[in-house]
Amino acid sequence: RDTELDRDVAVKILPESFVSDANRLERFQREAKALAALSHPNLLDIYDVGTTDGLHYAVTELLEGDTLRERITPSGLPWKKVTSIGAAVADGLAAAHGRGIIHRDIKPENLFLTADGRVKILDFGLASVHEEADADAETATITEAGTVMGTPGYMAPEQVKGKQADARSDIFSLGCVIYEMASGHRAFRGETGVEVIANILKEEPPQLSSSGASVPVDLERAVHRCLEKRPEARFQSAADLAYSLKSVGLSGTSPVMATPGSGLEATTEKKFSLPRIGAIAALLILAVVTSWWALTQRGGEQAPIEAASTLDPNRIAVVPFTNRTGDPTLDALGHRTADRIAQQLTEMEELEVVPPSSVAAALATEGSTPSDTRSLVGEVTTATSAGLVLSGVIDASGDRIEMQATLEDAVEGRVVRAFKPVISDRTDPSTAITTFAERSFMATSDHLHPSLTFGAGDDLPNLETYLDFRRQLRVADRDNFRPFMGLIHAYPDFTRLRLMLTASFLNGKRFQMAKEFLEAGMTDEADLNQHQETTVLALRNWISGSYDQAYRLFRDELERSPRNLVLMHVTIRCALYANRPAAAVAIYRGLVLDDAVPPSIYIFMATDTAAAHHLLGQNDEAIRLLRQILDDNPSSGLTDWSRTQYINILGATGDIEEMERLLEEGAGHEFLPIESVYSRLSAAHELRAHGYHEASRTMAERALSGFLTEWLDPSNSAYVQVMKWRLEALLIAGHDREAAELASGLDFETAGWRAALLYAGVASARVGDATTARQKSDRIDQLTDDDLAGVGLAPGDLVVARAMIAAQMGEVDESLELLRSAFAFGAKQVDEDNPLPELRHNIFFEPLWDHPEFQEILRPKG
After folding, report:
1. Half-sphere exposure of 144 (CA within 13 A, CB side)
2. 611: which residues sit within 8 A by CB, 6+ positions away?
3. Closest C-alpha among 653, 605, 649, 337 to residue 478
4. Residue 400 bridge partners (DSSP)
């Protein structure tokens, strides 16, 4: 009983055999602390880890319910339950993997179903405490390469071989669990543990549907992908698997059920036999027939409009609503509703609305009557060249009427939105008509401008809110959130605005603000749709520094909405932070202009992509892109970072003359003196890294001479930032003793000095004061989230700072270890607010530049 917080908890005491192994004890404590920092509904909450009277313990939440093992029946569980549980476990794994924590022992015994319906992963990070076991034992664990641990029947092939487990190993284990949930028996069986392990290494599990399990094809395909022998053939992230499982059965039609021979084989290397080809052909026919049936049965409506390449995607025809009530007095209501919708849509400048008279003429040409208007939607679009069509029906609902509407894209041949029915009084349907007119405007606007849908839910807001949102987004500036903040105060439940603002805060390095702002609006996450859930999870990973996981989640959403430029922007940014420059470049190639987003989005995306080209050594491409930005926006303050990146990249070429020309050009375009200092420091790193040592020192000296007298006044608001840069400039220019003396006179406990601790530590190391250097490094390690509020640094960045100090002290191994840890906990490879745009070329890592492991750690991942 926790008497202070008045709650029941679980206390786990570690065995003496574990405590005697210092390495395992340290690993347990590190992983437990990392987990304690996570907050995820599918992870067991860890409240405390400590030692008392020689006993090492962990305090966790106390759960009521059963393990999954107790819930699995001999015939398996219903497939919907299987996907629900599997997706929840995958979500929890994704959160932990984002912190570099691998479970290593996913099995039904370690998954808990609470009495209130939640799914919890147990013993996360604790699997490594078990003693090594032989192959015939029921339980063993794995933590290090060469040590076979885990549970036979759930271990991935690489675990069985004693290789290092990673996130994909957990995915294999979860695949085994999902297989067992669906079928009632294990994917890999045998009389002994040795036989089970042999089957894992050599045999493919029987097709899930061959066990008699009734599962959709998509679920069977996902399970067998999890069970691929080669890690690279599996889902590459738990988030990918979670999304796949959540998507099963969500198409709006009955899912195609798997039959023996109908699903994908567990390996792609087997050749197709004639029977298998026949089965797949039958499946394709079944899928086509099922899709046709679902589309033609949708609410009694006809199939969607046939795609036509001659249609104008920005032209819409509104067809009079079809009266299906049998009451001829309501015929006019259908025309009245269509006219009101058309009138509302004309307010959208980028949309051409087919005049109601032209729609009526098209219908008259076909000899239609109001009762069969819906069946002639295709003819209307063909006659009017409208790429969009909105139609509806009026049905009787007791003594009232029910109105429904559908917006369809005739170019792509799909339904854009099926609006929720509205019930109205027969004598006064005006409110219902207005509702459809406003919904039609918002749905059409979202369709034409997918960038507006970042974080959008299933329900549309009221029109006033939407119009305010659209207007503010068009003129939004990353550093000016005031208009949006006023809007969110007026409409606190407008989730899409909250998620978009959170992303804006993160782009502006306001991590603490982003965290508080996001969580303030997530009081009831049950109301979020699937895409919003993914967006929230991605933003949380970004906040915590799990950039790679955030990138993967955003990337998956971008694949479903490739024209969403806000989504494209955050995906490129996270790809860059995650050291995936090739991915950033590839994403940018899909850019399609949208005048609904502000110019800043394009500028920031292009600058990020230029930085990605630079990381890949493609400096000509980077310079071309940055030159284009400056030419297209000659007097915009939004291009300051673009100019700095340009000057920095020129450092790789040693073109000092062009650098100075850019600085002079910027001075005439409101490029402030302080930004000139920033740019010179950034370039100085590049110049030295590419062998231009004297030019680097000269650039740093010029930066020092650019400090204005008023900046050095402690009462100046820029004083703290200036002192940080002054320390850096002195160190680059070789004035180590002066930098150390300057640092010794600064009060690093004063708010705002956190970022300067790095240069103080480097200065101390440079002059041989190892004690002070170590103290500065230790102080950085002690910084809390409150210390970092408003500084623009993430935990991983702090570890990078300590690695720099260690490198300057000559502690190569320690520096490399810190760097590995930094990237596991979210260090940024490129940072717009730091004059260190590429860590490979950072002067303070110069002692490591030629070290193979340093080069490997910072090698772009893709």
Report:
1. 9
2. 576, 581, 622, 645, 830, 837, 838
3. 605
4. 397, 425
Q: Which helix (H) or strand (E) holds 434?
A: helix 430-448
Q: Is 488 left (phi over 0), alpha (psi -120 to 50) or beta?
A: alpha
- The answer to which of 344-358, 586-600, 817-831 has the lowest mean pLDDT is 817-831
* Sequence-ordered alpha helix ranges (H) in 449-520: 463-474, 482-490, 495-507, 511-520
Helix (H) or strand (E) holding 104: none
Q: How many helices (H) and strands (E) does the chain have?
A: 36, 13
Confidence of residue 508 (pLDDT cuts 50, 70, 90): confident
Q: 395 in helix, strand or coil?
A: strand
Structure tokens at 543: 């906040």
pLDDT single digits (tens) 242-286: 878 887 876 555 667 777 654 443 333 333 333 343 433 333 333
Counting beta carbons within 10 angstroms of the beta carbon of residue 639, is it exposed (0 to 12), middle (13 to 18) or buried (19 or more)? buried
* pLDDT of res. 275: 38
pLDDT bin (cut points 50, 70, 90) of residue 129 is: very low
Query: 159-177 as b/e, with b when 16 or more CB fall inside 10 Å?
Result: bbeebebbbbbbbbbbbbb
- Helix 565-577 vs helix 599-615: angle between axes, to the nearest 10 degrees? 30
pLDDT digits (tens, 9 = 90+) for 467-490: 988 887 877 665 455 667 777 777
- Listed in sequence order, the residues at least 6 apart from 435 whose beta carbon sits closer than 8 Å to its beta carbon are 422
Angle value at C-alpha 734, between 728 and 738, nearest 5 degrees: 70
Residues 6 or more apart whose CB falls under 8 angstroms from that of 749 comprise: none
Dump pLDDT digits (tens) for 226-243. 999 988 888 888 888 887
Alpha helices in 148-267 (DSSP H): 157-160, 167-183, 193-202, 217-226, 238-247
Distances (CA, A) of 598 to 441, 472, 590: 21, 9, 18
216 HSE (CA, 13 A, CB side): 21
Between the alpha carbon of residue 421 and those of residues 128, 225, 290, 624, the distances in Å are: 55, 40, 25, 52
DSSP 731-780: HHTT-HHHHHHHHHTS-TTSTT-GGGHHHHHHHHHHTT-HHHHHHHHHHH
Asked whether 121 and 114 are in contact (CB, 8 A), the reply is: no
Q: Classify the C-alpha dihedral 543-547-550-554 as positive or negative.
A: positive
Query: If pLDDT is split at 50, 70 and 90, which confidence band does 346 have?
Result: very high
Comparing C-alpha atoms, which of 777, 780, 730 is closest to residue 769? Answer: 777
Phi, psi of 592 (to 5 degrees): -125, 130
Q: b vs e for 87-113, b when ≥16 Cβ sit within 10 Å of the residue's Cβ? A: bbbbbbbbbbbbbbbbbbbbbbbbbbb
H or E segment and range at residue 424: strand 422-425
Do 499 and 455 meet the contact criterion of CB atoms below 8 Å apart? yes
Does 105 participate in catalysis according to the annotation? yes
φ, ψ at 347 (rounded to 5°): -75, -10
Q: Select the more confidently predicted residue: 817 or 544.
A: 817
Length of the chain: 862
Q: Where are the beta strands (DSSP E) in 34-140?
A: 46-52, 55-61, 65-67, 111-114, 119-121
| pLDDT at residue 250, rounded to an integer | 65
pLDDT at 633: 83
End-to-end CA distance of the chain: 50
**What is d(CA 306, CA 146) in angstroms, rounded to the nearest whole number?**
59
Residue tagged active-site, from 48, 53, 91, 105:
105
Is 580 strand, coil or helix? coil
pLDDT value, residue 789: 56
Helix pair angle (757-766, 719-732), 10° resolution = 30
| Structure tokens belonging to residue 13 | 């005491």
Q: Are strands 352-353 and 312-318 parallel, antiparallel or unpaired?
A: parallel
**In 297-366, at which residue ranges do the beta strands (DSSP E only) sit?**
312-318, 322-323, 352-353
Q: Judge whether 484 and 474 are in contact, CB under 8 Å.
A: no
Give Cβ neighbours of residue 773 (< 8 Å, ≥ 6 apart).
Answer: 761, 762, 764, 765, 805, 808, 809
